[in-house]
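Internal ticket #5521
Category: modeling
Description: The requester needs a full-assembly model to guide mutagenesis choices. All entity lines are attached below as received. Residue total reported by intake: 863.
Assigned to: D.W.
Attached entities:
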Amino acid sequence: MTFPRDPLRAKGPSPLRRWRATGLLAPVAVAVVAVVASPLGFVIAQAAQAGWGQTRRLLGRPLIATLLGHTLGLAAAVTLATAVLGFGAAYLVERTTIPGRRAWTVALALPLAVPEFVRGYSWVSLFRSVHGYWGAVLVMTCSLYPLVFLPVAAALRHGDAAAEEVSRSLGHGRLATLWRVTLPLTRPALAGGVLLVSLYLLGEYGAFAMLRYTTFATAVFTQYKLGFDAASASLLTLVLVGLALLLVALEAWAGRRARITRHGALARPAVPVRLGGWTLPALVALATLVGVSLGVPLYALAYWLVKGSSTTLPSASVLGATLATLGYALGAALVATVCAIPVALYGWRRGTRPARAVERIAYLTRALPGIAVALSVVFFAVRWAQPLYQQPPMLILGYVLLFFPLALTAVRAALAQVPPGVEEAARSLGTRPLAVLGRVTLPLVLPGLGAAVAMVGLTASTELTATLLLRPTGTQTLATQFWVYTSGLAYGAAAPYAALMVALSVPSVLLLTRRSLGSTR
Amino acid sequence: MTGLSVVDLHAAHGRSPVLHGIDLTVPDGALACVLGPSGCGKSTLLRVLAGFHPAAAGQVVLHGRVLDDGRSRLAAERRGIGLVPQDGALFPHLSVAANIGFGLPRSQRRARVEELLELVGLPGLGERRPHQLSGGQQQRVALARALAPRPRLLLLDEPFAALDAALRAELRREVASTLRQAGTTAVLVTHDQDEALSFADTIAVLRDGRIAQSGSPDELYHRPADAAVAGVLGEANLIPAEAGGVDARTAFGVLPLATPASGSALALLRPAQLRLTATPVAGAVPAKVLGSDFRGHDHRVELRPEAVDLPDGLIASADRPWPVGGEAYVSAVGPVHVLPEA
């Protein structure tokens, strides 16, 4: 026998050993999620300080109605536009014979690499007339339609074509099939994409500030920065958070009604629709979309880089800002990924109700607008950790809270690659749970963890709103330095920072595209 | 000596009970099979034995050592119970040799891995990766990996389900002989009666979280305790009978009994016990042929007998096809086993 022989005991293992067998995973996962969800608590606590009378007075102001109108009006137009453009582009690329499908896929996803405030800058700096409501609709639609395009394209690619074939065989034409079968089947993906779009809209500050369009997020920022009115900023934030949670609930309701029952290995790809004479119009449509959403910012960057180089470039500050950006982003990415591991493992191993709840709460935090997270970190630091206020750990903490859901998604995606049953097989061979983690689970997810770090790091490196509020005194990141220059209308000086941020974002967009769609067809 | 003994085992998923008092003994060195439809709790039983699911009450004892008694349980990694999951669950990042050696102390790995590769018929494939193997080879590696630390008990969770029919039968024979050679006590869980009948020394039929009957394959096939067990192990014709000691009166005449019984009962006639003729013979019942399916080694013929005291449908196994819609005469061959009337 090669098994360690325990003395025979009629009474079984001791309570201590039993406790160890159940593991520390659950408490650690719960603790992480409690920290991640804490901004919500801080916002509520801070708003509560305002008192009932002040709350009523603040919420009753006409400003609230104006902001609500602005925010909802924008959200309605942009979500509709992104849904139409995202679905249309995904359908053309995935389900028709349009030439150059792979190149189009990448080109259509790449606008995500241009941060919204950089896109705002590129339009504002080129065309004086782009501002206000329609400017905001244009800029945000161009920025955000890939968030619909990618999940819908993935659903179209991985979904089973059998349902559509059955519909055709029952006598429905292409259009009727598209409307009655394809669209309902992609509805969960569409709903998820639209949710992301509206959450981004709620949280965006930089682009709207540049386009001179007031929403809840810009109002919160102004209240906080200019008036230093914490209570009223918190109240506005609370309204913002309420809106975001409402959206998440709506999406859950819309997504639940259409579950995809088959996909993956069983699914068979659809035979693409022949475009024939429609090829040219379809190509023109896609080229226009890519031209407006990718071409314009790239042209603006090139224009200002060339024009700006006539003035002297402060190259030292570019390098300094880049290093600071990468340092903070990478630090935050490592912390977020490490924290995401226990939460992801807990949800992956146990399908139990508490495990699902913990994971859902973690995902719910992605509904928290960046400005809400940043403000809650500020409140926390001011009240309980004064020495840390405007110190590096606070910025890292802000990034971790903001991008934890992103890390969690990436770690979960990595865990999905682990075949079911290997952990149990390892334990049945006499390996302790911690050793199983080291010998089996972690080696299997290591490439995925690398992707998670890269994803979070690159995303954090273009963050503006929270960075403006949390950055240590004297530190400039690419985004904040860019912001300083554009606020002073120094478009040429801002260009190198913008170009660097776009370049840093490209790998994470490619990574996201690959993860959503799979590497090859 | 008793290898595994399970006494009045209860288990639940959340608040819904799944196992309601399982009693099961597997002698040392025996191959046992737990047979049941999906959802009957057989996977839960296996997971309780392996240590991945807690027992709510009852006892699991292996070689005199209590593994789980509903209050405290021994961690899975300390039980010395091997596991062959349905899809093998090989470690994809490790070579075949490293997979097999996973549960062994470093010093013993090399020699034991060679020995096991030989045992499962894959010598020389130690450096391959799992994805370079066929489904059957993967299952053999999974078996070798589970056998490597010489487990006190081996659990197999429908290990052949994902393989095609011909390979399944072959691998099943191979695995059974490998296990007998190694003298391993094993419990196989399956919903496939052919697998159970050909693999195991003893079968336990699991139904709604209870053991309906356990015994040797022959005993269960020919002398099931009730109609449901008879049906689980293969197609069964159950016809009313009046038992009188050593024989029974049925619609097919007087048939000898396999075991003495008396009183009204149901007689079990397996399809092979029914003979079809084109012309009437003594004791034969006329019947209409409803269907005839070729199955390779025989024809499965569905019939509607024209006798009031017979069930509406009978299944017979014939060596030639019978024209659908035509007439046939059905007679029965004893001895028969009788079941209590439901």
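Resolution: model delivered.
Comment from assignee: The CA atoms of residues 160 and 267 of chain A lie 4 Å apart.
Ticket closed.
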